[in-house]
Amino acid sequence: MQGRSRGLLPLFGSLVPASATAARTTAPGRAVSSGRAAGVVSAPRQVGWVSPATAPLPPSRRGTGRRWETLCWAACAVFALLLCLRTTIAPHQVWGACAAAGYGVAALVARLSARPWGPASAAVAAVGSVLVPLVFLVADGARQLEVTVVERSGGLLLDTGTPYVPDPAELRDYNPYLPGMALFGLPRAVLGDVPLADARLWFALVSLGAMGLAAVVCRGAGPSPRGTGPDRSPARALLWLAATPAVALPLAVGGVDLPVIALMCLALALAGRGGPVAAGLALGAAASLKWTAWPVLPVGLALLAVTAGRRAAVRAGVTAVTLAVLAVLPVALADPRAFAEHVLLFPLGEGGTGSPATSPLPGYLLATYVPGGFALAVAALVLGAVAVAGSLVRRPPRTTVAAADRLALGLGIAMCLIPATRFGYVVYPLVLLGWFRLVPAGRRAPRPGGAMPTRVASSQDAGRPLRWTYSLLCALSRRFSFVEDEIDGLRHVVEEGDVCLDIGAEYGVYTYALSYVAGPKGCVHGFEPLPGPYRVLGAGVRLLCGGRAHAHRMALGERPRDAAVMSLPYRRGLPVHGRAFLTEGARGPGPNSEFAGERRPVVRVGTVDEIVAAAGLPRVDFVKADVEGAEPLVLAGAAETLLRDRPTLLLEIEERHLAKYGARAERLVEELRFAGYSMFLWRDGRWRPVDRVTEAHRNYLFTVKPLED
User: Fold this and answer.
1) What's the N-to-C CA distance of the chain in angstroms?
2) How many independent structural domains does the chain possess?
3) Which residues lie closer than 8 Å to 130 by C-beta, 6 or more apart?
4) Which residues are in coiled coils (predicted)?
5) Closest Cα to residue 581, out of 639, 636, 511, 633?
6) pLDDT (tens digit, 9 = 90+) per residue, 573-632?
7) Rounded distance between C-alpha atoms, residue 141 and residue 145, angstroms
8) Rounded mean pLDDT of 224-244?
């Protein structure tokens, strides 16, 4: 090589053990046959190790975190203000005014805080969006119809033995809830018109108490590799949950769904821990409040069968059904006609008075505008329920997170297809999907005779979505050129528990695939310096990978520097991120001269060795680098890591890109071989040994491990 690459030969020469030097003259393509080169000291594998999410990886993203936090609170303030201006419901107007101010102050606190996503802004938001409007509404006496219905039902239950009006004539006479909901109206019936008797206070108390207890149960269920430090404590998770608009609004105005959701979450947490009686009691309590809680029964029992065995699931099922029957059956028998009118016909839109749940979702539209549409909607609802039930039998959830995801899916389908529905029900899947990802949810090991051993819950957070993503990427790589073929070959060279680096991650295609292949005991670090792709990468990592992967906004090269210039080409006014490159050491634009324009963002550059030391990585097993010709510079900055760990390398090698840094593909391959690496190419479904780089292919695998031809 010439120019910038002339220092690489001494680097790779230092990597070669004595045995490899002799082997170079006899078998260049198979210089080293062992998994780790002889004479190379590698760090021992630590079973179950996952890189901590709080590792001090440069650069600091506090400024970015503060901006995102400020933006989130500002968006919440805008939502609250719009609701205040548009709604005609008085309690919602009060909430919108108070919450808009609270979220606005929270945005200011977030902007001034030294640490992003801290408790201060969440506490301010919770006070403004929950405490202030709740106290005001209780003192003022203004309440929405649901609160009035529940408080009246408590009095009716004491007076007549049934919470239902015998002959409902108008909307306010109807009570679509199961008898257990009337318990929240008993304080008003017993204590009279005092603030402490307000049903909204008891809704909030039960909701927050059950959610907090669920978080405590999850925290004690088992170790979580993502840590359970202060940032993930149950109290802080509960604070953030209460501050979100989807939860703060019903907490303040008295939404009846939050206690139901909270008991569902508690039931899943107890089932995930393997406690049949406690889980059965929570399941039965939720089922006695509202029909929307009944789908939690099969999901919770399926989870319990995995964590504690089938007998425990049967015990929990008997406990849950017994409690629900004791709560519902006496009331149903007291006045069967009123029970059917209020609890069965009215929620389906078939009562004497039309249901106010008329959001334009598929079930409502079918029942309203299509002849025979009610029957079609009910049939679709039944088919959806059968499909979800079938999935529970074929692939039962093995963790609390997986069970919550399955339940959220089932409820989402039901809420779309039920003939009388409303958008407010979206709080069910939102809380179920989010809560167990906020709390450090572990799980108990299965008992003897139970189901198969499973991993801790935080490792399973990413399981199904990540598996689907990986399967889709592999399928696309076999049929379309826009997903690289080598994605399908990663499973042959990356092992369970491997630590991988994705350098030049762009939108994260390789990061997601490596996260799946390396499994929950592995870890992937993706590096992308450009802000646009980095935002996509970060969002994808959080959504799909759980604690398996981490995204870092930086470039990697041969030496660290705080400010380096990149050339980002533009075509037809749009950035071509995949062709961006570092300008330092480059002899011009090279093949990027085909683009009419460019921009020059400033980025931070680190080295592989710097990252490994800062993160405390015990080893690196796999490195993928696609940096538009700067691959030799990345390897130069990884000298210590290459010497210590001998990782497998997947490099993009194109002569046209290397040339702009004064390098040549032939010399790079020669030096890697001299270091004991063999070169392979993914072709026809397998890694095949090759001896040279061609223009027909651009990605080449280098490894010291033996691979089958």
Assistant:
1) 30
2) 2
3) 204, 242, 243, 248, 251, 252
4) none
5) 633
6) 889 999 999 999 898 899 999 998 999 999 999 999 999 998 889 999 999 999 999 999
7) 12
8) 66
Among 438, 473, 492, identify where a domain stops: 438
Q: For residue 672, what is the domain's CATH number?
A: 3.40.50.150
pTM for the structure as a whole: 0.56
Q: CA dist 676 to 22, 418, 594, Å?
A: 10, 64, 38
Phi, psi (deg, nearest 5) at residue 516? -70, -45
Dist. CA 14–CA 31, nearest whole Å: 15
Q: Are 707 and 683 in contact (CB under 8 A)?
A: no
Nearest to 33 by CA among 494, 646, 671: 646
Domain co-membership, 291 together with 388? yes
Q: How far is CA 194 from CA 138, 140, 181, 201, 255, in A?
A: 9, 12, 20, 12, 20
pLDDT digits (tens, 9 = 90+) for 179-230: 999 999 999 998 888 889 999 999 999 999 999 999 888 875 544 433 333 3
Distance of CA 240 to the CA centre of its chain: 16
- Domain residues for 285? 143-221+232-438
User: Do 542 and 645 belong to one domain?
Assistant: yes
CB burial of 603-637 (b: ≥16 within 10 Å; e: otherwise) equals bbbbbbbbbbeebebbbbbbbbbbbbbbbbbbbbb
pLDDT digits (tens, 9 = 90+) for 273-324: 888 999 999 999 999 999 889 999 999 999 999 888 889 999 999 999 999 9
Distances in whole angstroms, Cα of residue 270 to Cα of each of 73, 215, 308, 431, 632: 33, 10, 11, 17, 53
Q: For residue 2, how many other CB atoms are within 10 A of its CB?
A: 11
358 phi/psi in degrees, rounded to 5: -130, 35
Q: Are 226 and 241 in contact (CB under 8 A)?
A: no
Helix (H) or strand (E) holding 32: none
The position carrying tokens 């997947």 is 650
How many angstroms separate the CA atoms of 687 and 690, rounded? Answer: 9
Mean pLDDT of the chain, nearest integer: 83
CB atoms within 10 A of CB 516: 28
Tell me whether strands 597-599 and 581-582 are parallel, antiparallel or unpaired. unpaired
